[in-house]
Design a protein that fits this description.
Elements: H1 7-22, E1 24-35, H2 38-42, E2 45-46, E3 48-58, E4 63-71, E5 74-75, H3 78-82, E6 92-101, H4 102-109, H5 112-115, E7 120-125, E8 128-143, E9 146-157, E10 160-171, E11 180-187, H6 194-208, E12 213-215, E13 218-228, E14 231-240, H7 245-248
Antiparallel strand pairs: 1-3, 2-5, 3-4, 4-6, 6-14, 7-8, 8-9, 9-10, 10-11, 12-13, 13-14
Amino acid sequence: MSDKQNLEGQIVSQVAERSISNQLESAEQIDIYVETDILKIVQGQADGLTIAGQGLVTKQNIRVQEIQLKTDTLSINPLSVISGQVQLDRPLNLMARITLTQADINSALASDFTRKFAQNYDLNVNGEIVNLTLQEIQMFLPGNGRIECQGKVLLHEKGKTRPLGFLAKLRPRTSKQTLRLESFQCHEGEGVSLELIVALMQKFKELVNLPYFTWEGINIRIKDMEIQQGSLIIFSEAHVRQIPEAISEFTES
């Protein structure tokens, strides 16, 4: 916490640290800096919020190696804090730098929390709709700016269901390069048509190349990535209309 921060800012920062820590299973280190003064506190406002943390583990058992997050001006309903909730009076913009290890990523992909977001996808194969359900996926970070994804899906076509495994190697979109899918291989499946493989490749490219995704009303856009051996650094920005109930309940243990 900065020595230049005024007393009321320090007090609010300490309260925020305790509140956010209560939402985590554990944290090796977490520091929060709130830019505000007494008048803005009464009005439920702050000039900005900065969070820096290491080794954070959420209640959903999702681990983040390191995070640096900064918001613009906050406007919070003061009465909502009294009732144990935090409600924004106006949308909030934030920027984040998140570091995940390969183990962090694969643990998150296998968690029940993440599985809830797994969807069914429809593929158009020669005019016929083939549905696929993602069963499992693992990510590998060998270095050299490359990501490898290995997974298994269930294909539903013509009234039959069968498993299909895949291995994809790609260089994701960054500020310096566009998405490049280097290879896409299918295995654990028999009689896979070329048309189906092409449709799978197109769907995979579509998903990893989304400009943004939405979670709990938060629009999140990945601006850049740095891929190192065994770790991934994500630079993102988000537009938050309202803090999700799952993380705004300070009194929840």
